[in-house]
TrEMBL record:
The keyword ATP-binding applies. Residues 1-44 are annotated as: Disordered. Residues 30-44 have a biased composition (Polar residues). It comes from Hypsizygus marmoreus. Residues 13-26 have a biased composition (Basic residues). This is Lactation elevated protein 1. It comes from the Eukaryota. The keyword Transcription regulation does not apply. It holds the Pfam family AFG1_ATPase. SUPFAM superfamilies: P-loop containing nucleoside triphosphate hydrolases.
Length: 500
């Protein structure tokens, strides 16, 4: 018999005690979860192809209408291995022994999930009646994962190691019978979780209670296969939530595939009260197959012809060109004219959009990065607009560190949402972080920074030099933003992006 831990919750007495266990009732936060749910993000991989789209489910854009019947796990159905070989045959990817072994791990998990039946989710409903408080019911919650649950996958590696491509390959080929699934960027997932926890606390009211359990229950009801891209832990609040949330979801039978730029041992490395997060790290190492993607091959280093999406310097000629482009795109649909001063609302805050149609928006740099906006705000912008014009991006130095961080966060949001981006900037957009430190403060590029730039194929004359990015996480975010700007300036991206 599997070990269980017991919690007490209020429930009706006598005959209802046994029947309540076998009848599903809404959890505390179920009614609120639809309001709190973050819309699913678009796929990261530039290899993603959308077909058979329906207005009801973003993931059906890849899968089409799911079938609940299958006679053979592979017959007539795409698999990670078959799709990988097709990409090699078509010349999109070049064969790599190391990556082939990773694909085999994805294939093995794909096959196990076809026959996996997640356990029933326990009823966590509480009652506030007088009798139920006199006769509390014992609810047995699993204290370990189901024996039938396959281990998840934790794929880690530096920028350019193909993490997102591999995850998308796995998610797009999940068997159609697996309808409870979700693929989400981890940052968007945590925004969703914080909203759900807030809603659960409100629903619990004066009596209070543990909001993690109902939130985990709702998440498991929606998806027992979860794919997280760019898993990371950056603050104490997330660390404390994740420790219990991951444990509860895994014990409820959720199978996760995660990508990260860090080995589990390096997560939240210098965080406050890191010792409290260690159990979550041990969970990742014991319940996931931890796989290093670094093989010396950068899968982004494919020659691309840059299209004209970045304009510099800030002169009359480039202003005229970008205005002409904006007018051309926004006049394509007479029923959707450009309007001024549209307002978006997120987390109770209003975001002013200077000029936009329903799909295309134009901002000045100070509108987006000169204001105290967060990742949630930028995700709201990219969710609403498939194409964004960002004008007058300045060169940023030590005196612009906050604006530089916001710009990096905005670029990440555009990248994750497959947003088509047009930019006018003071210097080439890859060099906007290039400050000019005085001779007394000048220092050579750090070994770590040089290593990251080498890995990305970014030379100093492309990226420029900056003394404002010094910490390991800052350097990584800076280098990743430069790499993404290169990719988002490609002809491939311009042709593929912007179709929300």
């Amino acid at each position: 018999m599997k070990p269980v831990r017991t919690i007490f919750t209020a429930q009706t007495p006598h005959r209802r005690l046994h029947s309540a266990i076998h009848h599903r009732r809404p959890a505390v936060s179920t009614a609120l979860s639809s309001r709190a749910r973050q819309p699913q993000r678009r796929f990261n991989s530039s290899l993603s192809v959308q077909a058979n789209a329906t207005p009801h489910s973003p993931e059906h854009a890849i899968f089409g209408t799911p079938s609940h019947h299958h006679k053979h796990p592979h017959r007539g159905h795409k698999t990670p291995l078959s799709q990988y070989h097709k990409l090699i045959e078509s010349g999109v990817l070049h064969g790599d022994d190391h990556q082939t072994r990773i694909i085999q791990n994805l294939q093995d998990l794909h096959d196990k999930l076809i026959d996996y039946k997640p356990p029933k989710i326990p009823d966590l409903t509480q009652s506030n009646s007088f009798m139920s408080r006199l006769f509390p019911r014992e609810i047995q919650l699993p204290s370990s994962p189901p024996e039938s649950a396959p281990k998840g996958l934790y794929l880690y590696g530096d920028v350019g190691t193909g993490k997102t491509m591999l995850m998308d390959l796995f998610y797009k080929t999940l068997h159609p019978s697996i309808t409870r699934k979700r693929r989400v960027h981890f940052h968007a997932f945590m925004i969703d979780v914080h909203k759900r926890i807030h809603a659960a606390k409100i629903a619990m009211g004066f009596n209070g209670g543990d909001p993690i359990l109902p939130v985990a229950r709702d998440l498991v009801k929606e998806a027992y296969v979860l794919c997280f891209d760019e898993f990371q832990v950056t603050d104490i609040a997330d660390a404390m939530i994740l420790r219990r949330l991951l444990e509860t979801m895994v014990n409820f039978g959720v199978v996760c595939v995660m990508t990260s730029n860090r080995h589990p041992d390096d997560l939240y490395k210098n965080g406050i009260q890191r010792s409290s997060f260690i159990p979550a790290i041990e969970l990742l190492k014991s319940q996931f197959e931890v796989t290093d993607l670094d093989s010396g091959t950068d899968y982004r280093r494919i020659p691309r012809a840059l299209s004209q999406v970045y304009y510099n310097p800030l002169n009359v000629e480039n202003k005229r060109e970008i205005d002409k482009l904006f007018k051309s795109l926004t006049s394509a649909d007479p029923s959707d004219p450009s309007i001024h001063h549209r307002t978006l609302h997120t987390w109770g805050r209003a975001i002013k959009v200077p000029e936009s149609t329903s799909k295309i928006a134009k901002f000045r740099f100070d509108d987006l990065c000169g204001q105290p906006l967060s990742a949630a705000d930028y995700l709201e912008v990219t969710k609403n607009f498939g194409t964004v014009f960002l004008l007058d991006v300045p060169k940023m130095g030590m005196d612009s560190k906050d604006r530089a961080r916001r710009f990096i966060t905005f670029i990440d949001a555009c990248y994750e949402s497959k947003t088509k981006l047009f930019v006018t900037s003071e210097v080439p957009v890859f060099q906007v972080f290039s400050d000019e430190p005085s001779a007394s403060s000048s220092k050579p590029v750090s070994d770590h920074m040089r290593s990251v730039m080498d890995d990305l194929g970014l030379s100093g004359d492309v990226v420029g030099t900056s003394s404002m990015f010094t910490g390991e996480e800052e350097v990584f975010a800076f280098a990743r933003a430069c790499s993404r700007l290169v990719q988002m300036g490609s002809k491939e991206w311009a042709e593929m992006a912007g179709h929300h």
